[in-house]
Write a structure and sequence with these properties.
heterotrimer; A mainly alpha (325); B mainly alpha (305); C alpha/beta (327); A: 325 residues; mainly alpha; two-stranded antiparallel sheet; B: 305 residues; 10 helices; 67% helix
């Protein structure tokens, strides 16, 4: 057990290191921020001062190690554009993104799993087929266009919901959350749906296939031969078996959603990490881009570890501990 | 014992034609909702795409033909010289229909090229990993795991931020992001096939490794890869559209559907919906038909059925 | 004679394809009395398992039980609705499947899977149900039953899993247990133990048994009566000792002769020529005719009806003469 945990952690560390290398050098090969930040009329002295201040004159390797050292202490440089520490900037925007992702995941589970269950149990009916057809539409819709059409429909034509931005927030333990206000919800609901639709489709299909296959398993037939009621068969036998892969997928999707929130945040002008990333790419704000990638990688790595552990806990066939008998 | 009176041409029994529940059982057995519609849609789209230069009302790249005064006209409006803008115009006065036709072309070309290259690269990697094994296998799979551990959109985004805009760069980014999937599929299939006797036979006959890989293993492992590739075409097209929308994809000189949609975004709020809506519908139809066909293909080839 | 528990008449079960419905079970008659052990013997593809499932109404599309009556204690099971059938299953009629690894749900404990068999039919307190499960495990010879109740199926060996299946079948003291090749997946030594245990339990509780198998040897040891199945039909039936000693149907004779135990050491093993026909490839008339050494023209024209001779019956136009002993 300890060995397993240790190996996983080591793997994660390796991934983080590799990513830091790749990202650092990739991003630092991009354009010339000096051109961006220094006005054309600046004197040579001003330029030199700027370069020195931002540390852009040292050799790349030195910049990397300084970066790594600082990163371990939580300092990944100051934003070229905003002048505040990059990490701070991202952390400021994190609650907004997490809000969006958490609501999207909740929608995914609440809609995706039951719909998938129905589709799997009624696979050969019109109901099941209809749901599956709908799911194909769900994951075929280009996410950004879908968001735009939502805005067109609900904001421009119907005028029910605001087209962009985040609503009023309430501070909870110092973190501003908008899910606690009605106004907050009116702003949150569209982007959350936008983010969730593709995911719902995926989880739906996964659940449906799982349920359909589980039905063909011998143990289902055996349960019927024992006289077990159909509801219990679905609940205890089928659901329990498919819950394992579904839970792991949902866990992994959490990380994926954080990534895809970049698109939704751009379309809905939602002040989250994703939008910050896009803006920073445009503005060649390297520290922010690097910090973003590192933080997101960290989140991913943590999620993967958690999912692995959860999987082992849920499936009695996977043994983390050596059997005692 | 006397020889049996064997009748070599024995007649076999006839099946039962009607039973109480045959009708309802057959109804459920019959094929899924037809994919004919998707196939037709795809063919139409392909034809449109290749015939675009010949029958698009207007060349959207020819700046001399554009008239700013014709900008932002709703669908079915007429231009000064009597041409009908079936789907309206964008802010530059470009005919949306023509722009969409050309945009479809770019989207399709990028998608197909990216998938073709990813398949080639990924398959080779997977094949090598499976056949040679050992260190090469471990190395390749480490890289594959690494690449696949990250959301494609982010990787592509950062890559393109680094490389700048351009059709070739977009294709490169897509390939770098997608090849790993093919490698994994090919490798797992090749590992199964490698244990089979025909591979051993070929090796015993003295064929060089590369020959065995290409002429013996590859044909038998290609099926799952091809099925995956078909579905991935839609993914590639969607990814390119997204990247172009975000401004890191194709340059404005060669607008793909994603870029067109992006252009129209700012006008959405004032109600000029057609600039974004129609390119989106075209994109949706393209992706949807590929997905439906690919899905059906995957089902048909599923060994468990 | 004891009462008749199960009486099957003219059972026909077909599987649907686009081309038509092929009968896997084509007119089967069976009779089982209380406490009797009936061996249902046949090769793979003969339709014996399908017969078992048909009795319990567990045939799923594209299969369908087309016609026939299945009288259980006088009640026609085919006329019952699903809920009434459900109440009988696992309660008055139980079933044991072939592969216990596949039939037990890997993510639920054995205890839970046993208790649900009780709790779905009776409203007893959990503790009492658990106690009954414990007793059942002990009865089939599983040590440390308490701990075993909390274990998962993959923690048991093959033989033990099948004992668990037997225990589950016995939980509600059914009148009839249908066993579908329960020892085929186990090794021979375990097989012997299971057979012995089953026989003991059935004698003790006067439970009737239908033992479906391809192994005549097992039937010889275990059963009171035997029914031989070929290509969806019962070609011969009767008391075990009589049928095995003096078979009337050429197929039964062929089966007996091809048993390794009946061969003379040093000579070639006897085999029946040809292969059993596939579902769609059954010949008209008697299905065994292409492989039968005694076939006449009439065998190709019509399916032989059942001829009854006292307690024995067979379907054959050229049955083996009564006086002929087997080799």
């Amino acid at each position: 057990m300890v060995l397993f945990v240790f190996r996983r952690l080591l793997q994660s560390l390796f991934v983080l290191l590799a990513v830091s290398l790749v990202v650092f050098f990739a991003v630092y090969a991009v354009g010339d921020p000096i051109e961006l930040l220094v006005s054309p009329e600046a004197t040579m002295e001003d330029r030199a001062a700027m370069i020195a201040r931002l540390g852009l004159d040292k050799p790349v390797w030195e910049q990397y190690f300084t970066f790594l050292w600082n990163a371990l202490q939580g300092d990944m440089g100051k934003s070229f554009v905003h002048g505040v520490p990059a990490v701070e900037l991202i952390l400021q925007r994190m609650p907004a993104t997490f809000e969006l992702v958490v609501v999207a995941i909740t929608l995914t589970v609440v809609f995706g799993i039951p719909l998938g269950l129905v589709a799997g149990l009624h696979r050969d009916d019109y109901t099941g087929r209809g749901i599956m057809a709908g799911s194909v539409l769900g994951f075929s819709l280009p996410n950004f266009w879908q968001g735009m059409m939502l805005i067109l429909f609900f904001s421009v034509w119907l005028g029910w919901l605001p087209a962009s931005g985040r609503g009023e927030t309430v501070s909870v333990f110092g973190i501003p959350l908008s899910i606690l206000t009605v106004n907050g919800w009116s702003h949150l609901i569209m982007p959350a749906i936008n983010l969730a639709i593709g995911n719902i489709a995926l989880v739906l299909r996964l659940t449906a296939t799982g349920v359909y296959e589980a039905q063909t398993h011998e143990y289902v037939k055996f349960a019927r031969a024992k006289g077990v009621r159909p509801e219990r068969i679905v609940r205890r036998h089928i659901l329990r078996n498919i819950l394992i892969p579904v839970v792991t997928v949902v866990g992994m999707e959490f990380g994926s959603l954080i990534a895809y929130s970049t698109i939704t945040e751009t379309v809905f002008a939602w002040p989250g990490m994703g939008k910050l990333l896009i803006d920073s790419i445009y503005q060649l704000d390297r520290p922010v881009v690097v910090a973003y990638v590192m933080l997101v990688t960290l989140i991913f790595v943590i999620i993967n570890c958690i999912v692995d552990f959860m999987y082992a806990a849920l499936d009695p066939r996977v043994q983390l501990v050596s059997p005692s008998h | 014992m006397a020889q049996p009176t064997q009748n070599a041409r024995a007649r076999t029994i006839q099946p039962l034609a009607e039973t109480p529940r045959r009708a309802s059982i057959l109804k459920k057995l019959r094929a899924r909702p037809t994919v004919k519609g998707s196939v037709i849609a795809l063919i139409v789209l392909m034809v449109l795409v290749f015939a675009a230069p010949y029958f698009a009302p207007q060349d959207p790249y020819d700046l001399t033909k554009l008239n700013l005064l014709d900008g932002r006209l709703p669908p079915f409006s007429e231009s000064m010289d009597g041409m009908v803008y079936w789907l309206g115009t964008d802010d530059q006065g470009r005919d949306m229909l023509s722009a969409i036709l050309y945009g479809l072309r770019i989207s399709l070309v990028v998608g197909l090229t990216a998938v073709a290259l990813s398949t080639a690269l990924g398959s080779m990697a997977g094949l090598l990993a499976a056949y040679i094994g050992g260190f090469v296998d471990a190395l390749i799979m480490r890289i594959v795991d690494f690449v696949l551990g990250f959301p494609t959109i982010l990787v592509a985004l950062v890559l393109l931020a680094m490389m700048g805009r351009g059709v070739d760069k977009v294709i490169l980014a897509l390939v770098l992001v997608q090849w790993a999937n093919y490698a994994r599929i090919m490798r797992s299939r090749a590992l199964q096939e490698r244990r089979k006797e025909y591979v051993e036979a070929a090796a015993n006959l003295g064929f060089p490794s590369w020959r065995i890989m290409v002429f013996h293993l590859l044909p038998n492992c290609i099926a799952p890869v091809m099925v995956f590739a078909t579905i991935q075409i839609a993914t590639a097209i969607a990814l390119e559209a997204t990247l172009s929308f975000l401004g890191v994809g194709v340059p404005i000189t060669e607008p793909s559907l994603g870029l067109l949609i992006s252009n129209g975004f700012q006008y959405l709020l004032s109600g000029d919906y057609w600039i974004s809506m129609f390119p989106g519908i075209a994109l949706l139809v393209l992706i949807l038909s590929i997905n439906i066909v690919g899905d059906r293909l995957r089902e048909a080839l599923d060994p468990r059925r | 004679m004891s009462e008749i528990i199960l009486e099957v008449r003219g059972l026909r079960t077909a599987f649907h394809t686009e081309a038509g419905a092929w009968p896997a079970v084509d007119g089967v008659d069976l009779t089982v009395r209380r406490g009797e052990i009936l061996g249902l013997v046949g090769e793979s593809g003969s339709g014996k398992s399908v017969t078992g499932f048909s009795i319990l109404g567990l045939i799923d599309p594209p299969g369908e039980v087309v016609s026939g009556t299945v009288l259980f204690k006088g009640q026609d099971l085919r006329k019952l609705d699903e809920e009434s059938l459900r109440q009988l299953r696992g309660n008055r009629i139980a079933m044991i499947f072939q592969d216990p690894l596949m039939t037990l749900n890997p993510v639920l404990t054995v205890g839970e899977q046993m208790m649900e068999a009780i709790l779905t039919h009776e409203n007893v307190p959990t503790q009492q149900a658990r106690e009954r499960c414990r007793e059942a495990l002990a009865m089939v010879g599983i040590p440390a039953p308490d701990k075993r109740l909390n274990s998962y199926p993959h923690e048991f060996s093959g033989g033990m899993r099948q004992r668990v299946a037997i225990a589950i079948a016995m939980l509600n003291k059914p009148d009839l247990i249908i066993c579908d090749e329960p020892t085929t997946a186990l090794d021979v030594t375990i097989q012997g133990q299971i057979l012995y245990r089953m026989q003991e339990i059935c004698r003790q509780h006067n439970t009737a048994l239908i033992w479906i198998t391809h192994d005549l040897g097992v039937v010889a040891e275990l059963a009171d009566n035997v029914a031989v199945m070929y290509a969806g039909r019962i070609v011969e039936s009767g008391p075990v000792a009589e049928v095995l000693e003096a078979p009337r149907h050429p197929y039964t004779k062929g089966l007996l002769e091809s048993m390794p135990a009946n061969s003379i050491p040093g000579t070639r093993l006897h085999q029946i020529n040809g292969m059993a026909p596939s579902l769609a490839g059954r010949p008209q008339g008697c299905a065994f005719r292409p492989r039968c050494p005694y076939a006449i023209d009439r065998c190709a024209e019509e399916v032989p009806d059942v001829t009854e001779e006292g307690v024995r019956s067979f379907r054959c136009y050229v049955p083996i003469a009564r006086e002929t002993a087997t080799a």
